[in-house]
Amino acid sequence: MGPKEDRARGEALFEEICGAPAAAGAGPFLDMTIEHVFGRVWSRDDLTHRDRRLLTLAILCTLGEYSALEIHMRQALEHGHLTPEELHGVVVFVGQYAGWPRGSGAFVTACRVIDAYRAAQAS
User: Fold this and answer.
1) Whole-angstrom Cα distance, residue 54 to residue 86?
2) Do both 26 and 69 map to the same domain?
3) 31 and 80 share one domain
4) Residue 53 buriedness (CB in 10 A; 0-12 / 13-18 / 19+)
5) What is the three-class DSSP state of 35?
6) What is the pLDDT of residues 51-94, one digit of tens each?
7) CA distance to 21, 60, 64, 85, 99, per residue, from 15 (Å)
8) 72, CA 20 to 30 Å: which among 28, 51, 82, 112?
């Protein structure tokens, strides 16, 4: 596969994983993210998207990256990778290893995402 294929595959996976289209011409950092992270890494066959999502949630929680964590939590629910109960379980588990402040921030984020998800499902 070449750069054009990596780009096309990356754009499709970026939209699926992040829930928004990849911005064309947004700069070299986003280009690399789309082509490499999504076009080459997320597209591999060795792990499922659910597996990658769980790993991503754990890493983002540990780093305290709550804005990216919120995106991945929302998409995990939207794509059926996790149920609200499983998402809470992830936060409880990771929080024990990442520490209370990070777990607490992830819990607040998860509650907000789950409440919005349930409200959307009810309407």
Assistant:
1) 10
2) no
3) no
4) buried
5) helix
6) 999 999 999 999 999 999 999 999 999 999 999 999 999 999 99
7) 5, 19, 23, 25, 31
8) 28
